[in-house]
Every structure is written in structure tokens, then in C-alpha cells.
Amino acid sequence: MTTTRGLEGVVAATTSISSIIDDTLTYVGYNIDDLAENASFEEVIYLLWHLKLPNKAELAELKQELADNMELPKEVIASFKTYPIQSVHPMAALRTAVSSLGLYDEEADVMEEAANYRKAIRLQAKMPALVAAFARVRKGLEPVAPRKDLGFAANFLYMLTGNEPEEIAVEAFNKALVLHADHELNASTFTARVCVATLSDVYSGVTAAIGALKGPLHGGANEQVMKMLTEIGSVENVDSYIHEKLANKEKIMGFGHRVYRQGDPRAKHLKAMSEKLTKLTGEPQYYEMSTKIEDIVTSEKHLPPNVDFYSASVYHSLGIDHDLFTPIFAVSRVSGWLAHILEQYSDNRLIRPRAEYTGPGMQTYVPIENR
Ligand SMILES: CC(=O)SCCNC(=O)CCNC(=O)[C@H](O)C(C)(C)COP(=O)(O)OP(=O)(O)OC[C@H]1O[C@@H](n2cnc3c(N)ncnc32)[C@H](O)[C@@H]1OP(=O)(O)O
Ligand SMILES: O=C([O-])CC(=O)C(=O)O
């Protein structure tokens, strides 16, 4: 047996959903650059779930299905008030809330293909409503009901603030959703696939995936990037802050990647958005600090920024609370998790690798009074 630390380079599944080859990311063969510039998030959801772009009627049907399923069970909203709401991280709240959604879905354990697709619609539709409702309830505000006339990106921003968002915010948020939707066999997607490969249900798979995304080495990095920018505070402080971290062998959040070597193709889109939005909001220092950090880390560590680096200043400019950055990642990535869950069910085999044992050799049981 050979052991590969962190499963680096191990090909553990086949998939038709997305690929990373020579640092190029594609969803079903469409380059991410093309999708980021042109596609709505709803089109991308359809693409990931049906492996083709929708025509007008198919897109209208999906949008209708999402709009019809956004409302949350009242029990789930009521349960927020039983959480330690002032201290709980919204990602932990989301993990718990998604799990509890399964309790109120009569089809939760129905394993037929059509029922699983219906659950995918429900989960995709309800995720933004959960994040927005939790964000409001913890501030003592009432949740805002979704509006059927708004698209996915606009609806999220509307449910979060209660105000119809500006076009520029909707465009930026839509692009961020498209960029985060899927990413081959990343840790959270792998987690979802491992979970449902036991023939467990969709809610369990997504709950497990949220748990994996939460960690700072994965989706949780975007919040940590903002924490770093806030700590640094000004462009003048970047140099000493980053050099001290590097000298202490600490990781700089938002840099490095297991698969990309030359760079993450999503980062340039977020970088451009960050430049534009931070100027518009009168906080260009967040973009300026970010580019200075990028200069140092790329030249000294040869590590390019990943998707989490510039998304931090983009979300900050959209007025989103910093601890909602990772839940927002989940609102997008659930589309990919669901695509992979459906793909896993369609040709399932239990995922069960081996471990190389490194503990003591054979031992003889010693009764407790003799130990
Ligand atoms: C959506 C996403 O999940 S994108 C990734 C988000 N995560 C982050 O941004 C967290 C910061 N980055 C990292 O921790 C890593 O680069 C990961 C987790 C993304 C990839 O990890 P791995 O492929 O396991 O690389 P690993 O952690 O082994 O790093 C290899 C070397 O590069 C260094 N390195 C990797 N990333 C960084 C970083 N961000 N800052 C400083 N050094 C780094 C490591 O210290 C290690 O150095 P060493 O060989 O001298 O010990
Ligand atoms: O693929 C990975 O390892 C992490 C990542 O960039 C993502 O999930 O978007």
C-alpha cells in the first residue's frame, strides 16, 4: 500500500461536472472566464445539474421552481431563536439549519431520482433565505420574505437588507456566485460525495459539506482574509505585517492551492471587481492593501491568490457582514454539491479507502486493576 498525504494527486472519482486541467477551470466544458462574463447563476445551476445550458423555457422553469421554493419552514426560523444567537458563527448556524430543513421535508429519505432532484431545488432555493434570515434574526430584525420577481442574486441581497439592491451590486454578486459554484473534487464536494455514497440522504450530504467548507484552509479562508485586511488597516502596514507572518512561517490566507500552480483563474475576476467596488464605496485601501499583499506573497513565496483572496474585499464592498462570507460561498457551492450528489447517486459505489496503520504492534489486554 502507498500512502498519499492529503490524497494529493489521487484521482478518487470520475465526473462530467467540472474540470481543472493545466490551471483552466471549466464547468461542463465551458471556460469559467466565459461563464463569469456572460452567465446568470441560474444558468450555471442548470448547467451543473443537467450538463447543458438551458434554453429560454428551461431557464424560466428553473427560475420559477427556485422562486416557488425559497420560503422557509416557520419552525426553522423559530429555531434560530433557540441558538446562542449572539455568539454562534453563521456557518455553524447554517450547518444546523440545513440539517433541520431535512426534518421538515417529507421526501428527505425518498431516494428516487425525481425526489432527489426536487430536494436539490428546495435546498438551492432555501440556502440564501436561511443565510439572510439568520443574519437578520441575530440583529433583532424580522426575516424579509423573498420576492418572486427578483432573480437569485438580487433576491439574496434583498432578503439580507430589505431593500431592492442596485444593479451594480446584483451584477457583482451574480458573478461571485458563478465563480464559486463548482470546483471538481474540492474538500467539501468530496465530503458530500463520501457521505451520500453510503446512500445517505441529500440533506446529510449537504450538511456534511457545509462542515468541510467552514474550515479556514477551505471556504473559511475568505473571512480570514478580511480579518487580516482589517488588522493591517492601511497600505503602509502591509509590508511589516506580511513579512512578520512569513518569518513566523504562518500562512497568508487566500494564497496557495492544492491544484493550481500558476494561479487560480477565478481570482482575476474578483480582483477586477474588488478594484471597481472599493473605489465606488470610497474604500480603495482594501484593494490597495490586497494588491500589495499579492505582490509580496507572489514574489517571495511564489504563491498566487486563490478565489478567497479578492472575494473578501468584494463582499465587504457589498456591505456584507464579514462572518457571512463563508455562508455566501455555501449559497453558491451548494449548486455544485448537489450536482455531485446527484452524479454520485446515478452510479454509486461506497467510498472507502484504506489507512496505513502506524500504531503499536500486537498487544495483550491488561485488566484495569493491573494497569
Ligand atoms: C476555496 C478554497 O478552498 S481555496 C483555498 C483556501 N485556503 C487558504 O487560502 C488557506 C491558505 N492556504 C493554504 O493553507 C494552502 O495553500 C492550501 C490549504 C490551500 C493548500 O494546501 P496544500 O496543498 O496542502 O499545501 P501545504 O499546506 O502543504 O503547503 C505547501 C507549502 O507551501 C506553504 N504554503 C501554502 N500555502 C501558504 C500560504 N497561504 N501562506 C504561506 N505559505 C503557504 C506551506 O507552508 C508549505 O511550505 P513548506 O513546504 O515549507 O512546509
Ligand atoms: O479546489 C479546492 O481545493 C478548493 C477550491 O478552490 C474550491 O473549492 O473552490
What does it look like?
- With 371 residues, the protein is mainly alpha-helical.
- The chain has 2 domains: 15-215 and 323-346, Citrate Synthase, domain 1 (Orthogonal Bundle), CATH 1.10.580; 221-317, Orthogonal Bundle (Cytochrome p450-Terp, domain 2).
- Helices cover 57% and strands 3% of the residues.
- It is built from 16 helices and 3 strands.
- The chain has helices spanning 32-38, 41-50, 56-68, 74-80, 90-103, 113-137, 152-161, 167-180, 187-196, 202-213, 221-232, 235-247, 267-280, 285-301, 307-317, 325-346; strands spanning 18-21, 24-27, 30-31.
- Helix 5 crosses helix 6, helix 11 crosses helix 15 (307-317) and helix 12 packs parallel to helix 14 (285-301).
- Residues 183, 186, 257-259, 306-307 line the site of oxaloacetate ion.
